[in-house]
Amino acid sequence: MHSPPQPHVPVLTRVNTLALYVAGVGLVAMTCIVGWQVFCRYVLNDSPSWTEPGAVMLMSWFIMLGAAVGVRENNHLGFDVLLYVVPPSGKAWLRMISDIAILLFGAGMVWYGGKLVGLTWATTLPSLGISGGWDYVPLVGGGALVVLFALERIVLRLRGAPIDDALDKAAPAEIAVELESIEDVRRDAAELDRTR
């Protein structure tokens, strides 16, 4: 269930869209690489050595970019039970705490990912012939986007932008699916009554 458009920074909207498309292209490319690996292994009986590490590296990119997009679009994992019972002002505080925690987590991704890049940059991935640091660059890139998108939500909320209004009006995720198909349920119930 999609929420109505919310106020955002236009530049970050373009960055978000780009990250989403790059993640999608990465997913398709990884699928093609894995398909090629299976074909080479079982049909040609000669599996290339670069396919598995290449697919894993692409997977790292689209997972990290997708996670950042999820933060911006508020589709990340959350523990929402308390939000159902607190007043609206309490919801805003809990969401702010959540965004701060996400920001700190993203900063940790950048910091520790950067350390891993530095530690492994001098090594070489033999099957790809590139620096081992490239294995951890997605962690830094995804973390930087998580920080940007969480910071955007924090700043917009502090400025009084109605970024939580759509969330407050939306049905809880646990019943959203049922609400989307409520007309089908009513029609089936009416049809069942007619057949009795």
UniProtKB/TrEMBL annotation:
Family listed: Belongs to the TRAP transporter small permease family.
Function: Part of the tripartite ATP-independent periplasmic (TRAP) transport system.
Alphabetic keyword roster: Cell inner membrane, Cell membrane, Membrane, Transmembrane, Transmembrane helix, Transport
Assembly information from the UniProt record: The complex comprises the extracytoplasmic solute receptor protein and the two transmembrane proteins.
Record-given protein name: TRAP transporter small permease protein
Localization per Swiss-Prot or TrEMBL: Cell inner membrane
Stretches assigned to the Tripartite ATP-independent periplasmic transporters DctQ component domain: 30-159
